[in-house]
Amino acid sequence: MTEHVNSYYAASANKHAPYPTLTEQLECDVCVIGAGYTGLSSALHLVEKGYKVVVLEAARVGFGASGRNGGQIVNSYSRDIDTIEANCPPDQARLLGSMLFEGGQIIRERIKRYNIQCDLQEGGVFAAETEKQLHELKSQYARWQKWGNDQLELLDAKGVREVVASDRYVGALLDKSGGHIHPLNLALGEAEAIRMQGGQIFEQSAVTSITPGQPALIKTAKGAVKARFVVVAGNAYLGNLVPELAGKSMPCGTQVIATEVLGEERARSLLPQNYCLEDCNYLLDYYRTSGDHRLLYGGGV
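Request: output the structure for the sequence above.
Response:
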């Protein structure tokens, strides 16, 4: 059995019962492969609309990056809207622009509707180490305002020192519509919401084959699902299950370390407003404090 990796998030996860392994033949409207954020969000939206949904997870809910990430709610895409506008037809750019700030809103709505206990805190900071980076943040400020984000504030060197106890930064962009969460507890809470709405989740149920058709046939080692539609949400763990997708992803890594408990007073001396922060470097550093007042610090490789 593949369990959650030994991590701070797994050690501090909300109590939850494991979901069963698929050992039968089922039929449904939609079969979702993967119980990370993509699969869980898809399944939850679908069950709320009345669809019969089965979620198949090879390991545990939130096993991959969804349960082990930096926990920061960061708006936009991996490339910002200026790149999208320069490379996409106007209609597509407008569509993507309309969704720039939608993800965080959906997360907050889910947390509120289903009372998910995941240490939600508001506010995120993009911190500049150079004047060039600060200039780019000013451009980002203008772009995001254009697309409807009215919760932004540019900070000078004095202002950034009021949100983080460091003299490393020359300025920053504060996005009050950003924030941070306990990522594994968000995933577990969404899974429980799916169950409450009548959806079925199976863990330790790796998909071995997908046979297209009406219905499609999705097989695991001990069971099978017939479904009208299939949502493939395995991300980095798909392997060669869908050969045409295998060559369209590449591995990347990031590490996060948790300190000992600092206590609330010390934690607030580091980040007084409890915002999360990331710098503007290509291999960026990012950090925040946790619900139990640790410093969680991560970086790219």
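The two ends are 29 Å apart (CA to CA).
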